[in-house]
Amino acid sequence: MEKPNLHKISPNFTGQGVNPDLAIERKNPSFNVERLTNILDGGAERTQIRRTVDAWLQSDPEFSRENQYFQSQNERYEGAIRKSFYLAKKMNEMGWVEGGPHQEFCFRALSSDMAFNVHRVFLKSIMGLGTDEQIAKWVPLAEKFYIAGTYAQTELGHGTYLRGLETTATFDVATQEFILNTPSLSAMKWWPGDLGRTATHAVVFAQLYLKGKCYGMHPFLMQIRSLRDHSPLPGVTVGDIGPKMNFENVDNGFLMLKNVRVPRENMLARFSQVLPDGQYKKQGSDKINYLTMIVVRVYMLRSEVVLTLLKACTIAIRYSAVRRQSELKPGDPEAKILDYQTQQQKLLPQLATAYAFHFACQYMTKIFERAYTETKEGKFDLLPELHALASGIKVIATEYSSSGVEVCRKACGGHGYSLLSGLPSLYTRLVASCTYEGENTVLLLQTARFLIKCFAMAKDGQPVPMSVAYLSSKNFGKCQAQEKRDFQNPDVYIDAYRQRAFRMLRSAAIKLQSLIQLGTTQHEAWNRCSVQLAQAAMAHSHYIVVEQFVKALQWYEEELAIHRILKRLCDLFALHGMYLNMGDFMQDGYLSTEQTAMVTESYLELLPVIRKDAVPLVDAFDFSDASLNSALGSYDGRVYERLYEWAKKSPTNQQKNQVFETYLKPLFQNALSKL
Amino acid sequence: MEKPNLHKISPNFTGQGVNPDLAIERKNPSFNVERLTNILDGGAERTQIRRTVDAWLQSDPEFSRENQYFQSQNERYEGAIRKSFYLAKKMNEMGWVEGGPHQEFCFRALSSDMAFNVHRVFLKSIMGLGTDEQIAKWVPLAEKFYIAGTYAQTELGHGTYLRGLETTATFDVATQEFILNTPSLSAMKWWPGDLGRTATHAVVFAQLYLKGKCYGMHPFLMQIRSLRDHSPLPGVTVGDIGPKMNFENVDNGFLMLKNVRVPRENMLARFSQVLPDGQYKKQGSDKINYLTMIVVRVYMLRSEVVLTLLKACTIAIRYSAVRRQSELKPGDPEAKILDYQTQQQKLLPQLATAYAFHFACQYMTKIFERAYTETKEGKFDLLPELHALASGIKVIATEYSSSGVEVCRKACGGHGYSLLSGLPSLYTRLVASCTYEGENTVLLLQTARFLIKCFAMAKDGQPVPMSVAYLSSKNFGKCQAQEKRDFQNPDVYIDAYRQRAFRMLRSAAIKLQSLIQLGTTQHEAWNRCSVQLAQAAMAHSHYIVVEQFVKALQWYEEELAIHRILKRLCDLFALHGMYLNMGDFMQDGYLSTEQTAMVTESYLELLPVIRKDAVPLVDAFDFSDASLNSALGSYDGRVYERLYEWAKKSPTNQQKNQVFETYLKPLFQNALSKL
């Protein structure tokens, strides 16, 4: 029998009935699985809290996700509201405070089942943008759900580009009110969560007009539906935008306003206000508020994006240790698919990527905290760098994680296409993150703008921010590796990533400069370089992730086994990235043909080494079966039993098949006499 | 006003109300759009037939897809059955024959709405594997839908590897029956379409046992449900496998058999039969049957895979000509997103890919037809090459098309995430093709096996099949291009693709050989080279697609404008592939750093050139609005109007919101006194 050892306290472990093909994978991990779990959780104490939360969520039937894959949009929405209120009540009873670790782990486990996500943004925007009086009036109401709010910014015709928003708020001195209008169809608010069927109030962003002059975007807190019967207020048209690729739990909505009047006091006025006589007054700096936007991205990466990749790896790797197919050796029983090099090459780089982003998020959290402290002290120096970093890391993390989840899903073959595997919904949900919280191409070009600026500064001999220090390098020579094992030296691959980022940025900068010198306008030149600029920003972000993974390794130098396995994952992440982008690394002969062969061999030889620990490495994520909600990925590996049990519960098997009576029976009768 | 000119007869064109942003894109196509449509359709006559069919489908409310994105799995299934019968009746009335062009275009337009796809495979398998008596008995019943059939091959635990299938058929001489059994859970038939809720009969594949000896997989025709009341026959357990990522119209099912008896006459016995005394008798060659499998792949590529990419390009390009965002030039109105280089670089390579695969499918159809004729004459020489080609092209077409569709979807930003855009379901459906009809990695390795064999033959100086003639080359030098426009010379890029395929195959072959010489077993060595072998097979297939696109250009040399635009698309396809895989092309200095810069520039400079014709190029596909079923992609470009109109029809806006009464109202009441 397998030793349950360190998983004793995991809510998954029932002590029996584990598929022997999976049990054997857990026999000899090269490292202490529990210790790695603690590292990932941020300490043994947090592991304990998470397990308490997971065990409770798994045991309470209110949170059951058993029927999730069979539910309609309507049922998902109703369930999300119900669970949200139930959780709030329970947390209260348990004494788990808002913002504490218990809540964090609840949300982590339940996010795709919850409502009121944007209600929370509504709340935070009042706290961030409102005056003390506004906060005192509205926040308690929203916290107790006496009102439900939404944050209405994007419009049907306008997304990322805020200046293009069309909604207007015109101040009427006579009545001391703003008159809000949707001047065209494309100006309709579109997409805000919790708006479609829930919200009574909204923070609406609109162009402020005072005496005919536009003062730009401002936030207005307004009521949109009746608290008594939920009907839209006069002048308000509101509804649900219909089905999406996922997020059925969320009622994304539309909102049209026709001469809706909002009292002067309802413009959120921490940073600017309109005086009774219609004068405009700016006050303070909204830079700290700008930080809030960045922290949302960092939080989203940690609690949603990377987590989803971890889940997909868990499901696909466990399944691949159980699924058998074809002969690897003639006469042998069918082999585990995890033993095929092609399968290892699909899954293990995703696993390494998941670990890489875990540490990248830690790094981002740390420098965000520093920036937050400094900003509060009135020092804003870190902000541009932080913004560029957060944008770049957001892009690489969402792109790599979503494509990685899809690689995992496809690697599970036909069964990965069944909703019951859990994988399709992980992908369809995660991929949205490439678009929300800043569309990825737009963000990359923002990072590129920062990099180009730093590149020019470095060229002029000026000091540059830490994360782009390499831009001051005079030149990069050739790669120094002599043999393939040199490529498992972090100094070697960090140098490779650094010179790649440098070279790509430099060549985009040179092109940009020469276009401008040839008379192309600044903007046209920027556009004609934008593909290369975006790629340079990606290469920069890639370098940061590699470097931060290497730096994180240092914390574990004393723990040999942990250090060794993390180092292998770090090597794999770095080498896989080189393998896939070899052309970038070969520019100017930085890598020779012989060296590219060493990279490839070094990369491929890591696969069977890490494969031995593949199951322990995903076990270390310690997801409860309930939170995976996958017939393929449960801890016990009883894949086929679960697929069959779950399929039987499908409504298609529970209902009478009317199609037979109506369409088939009249035809089939004709065969009776002939068979 | 825009000139409707050549689109007069398209069912989309209503003559008015086209969004001016889209209308202007149609003003000056560089080529005759109608001519290109005819080329794509395979002649003006076929265009005419297709339009007749499309117009009819678009006008008949029975085929309306208006509510498709709001429907449950159950409703989609019911609709598919209803439409299938309706279509069969109508086709009969119209005199549109089975297998004729009208039917082809009906299926093309309606495939995702139809049932009985696997019923047709059932029918064909009887025709292919049955004796004349079996065909005479069963085919007429199935053709008239007096019985409904399915093709039950894959099992819960077994997919691509047929020898691993577990279902058994044991002959009982006493009763002259086969006894069919599902010996374990993993042996349950799983996935067959039309099985879950429809089929009365099935062709079941099982290991044939005669007197205790296994004779391998054979097909058995058996009844599984009552024709009277549709209940499962004794010993049969059957049902639906539950929800999937798409294909809600299909009732994929499971089937378990316990001592189900099938008369001896029901083993499909064209190629082997069991005599009354239990003797086994083989007869004839099943090679022609093997061809059937290949033709299914070719047909699937043409009628489903490539078509889906064409649709996604149509939607995303039309939307990008209408959607405006941000300033390209300060002070100007927001720019069309299609004018951004980053957007062009997302969409236009997909468009080029769509055209490339169109011609690749034509090539495959042609050589398939040759092979079919030869095989009927008893010549089987072409079969291994055809199999390798069809496998490789299936893989590259499904991989590139599905990732291309997803690129198109993401390029539409938030609205691409709405089901109403039509894009999510195009992706979730298409991506299944990477797994069905042969899992892609498995297929690539089959192609690789053929290539390795040919490589060895070429080395020995033996003649090799036409498509791999390049393996006989002694060596490839360096790329001859001197300046960037040289990369728009097909000879230059064909040579580049050819040497890449050669080099990748050679290095995999050398590694394979040296592992074996070092004492690694054949199978282990194959496994350790499999990543590189699969890539070599991909590179070979890529080369074939490029070369066939170039060859197709020759047919249009007389038609200057058509030739010019197709040549640009061909260049773009070839250069984009080089740009993305630059490392492969730089091996051994085939491309220098300077030449890679030329490739990049040459590629990027093509984008704005093709962009001018982007809308006419997708108009040439001539999809009816009904078949696109997209709020973003209609011919008239009235994107925002349609999104809003469609959203309003969502059931979430039609039903009373019970959530308010149950959960929200009791809380909101508390705010009444405070606001």
Overview of this structure, please?
With 675 residues, chain A is an alpha+beta fold. Chain A has a domain at 122-283: Butyryl-CoA Dehydrogenase, subunit A, domain 2, CATH 2.40.110.10. Helix content of chain A is 53%, strand content 8%. In chain A, the strands form 3 sheets. In chain A, strands 1, 2, 3, 5, 6 and 9 form a 6-stranded mixed sheet that branches. The first copy, chain A, has a 3-stranded antiparallel sheet with strand order 4-8-7, with no helix packed on it. The longest helix of chain A has 36 residues, at 341-376. The first copy, chain A, starts with 19 loop residues before the first helix and ends with a helix. At the A-B interface, helix 4, helix 9, helix 14, helix 16 and helix 17 of A face helix 4, helix 9, helix 14, helix 16 and helix 17 of B.
Helical content band of chain A: 40-55%
CATH architecture of one domain in chain A: Beta Barrel
- Shape estimate of chain A: globular
**Range of strand content of chain A:** 5-15%
Would you identify the regions of chain A where 5 or more consecutive residues have pLDDT less than 50? 1-11
Of all chain pairs, the largest interface belongs to: A-B, 133 and 133 residues
The number of distinct helices of chain A, counting runs of at least 4 residues, comes to 22
The CATH topology of one domain in chain A is what?
Answer: Butyryl-CoA Dehydrogenase, subunit A, domain 2
Mean pLDDT of chain A: 94
Largest sheet of chain A: 6 strands, mixed
How many E-type strands of chain A? Answer: 11
Look at the helices and sheets of chain A and give the structural class: alpha+beta
- CATH superfamily membership of one domain in chain A: Butyryl-CoA Dehydrogenase, subunit A, domain 2
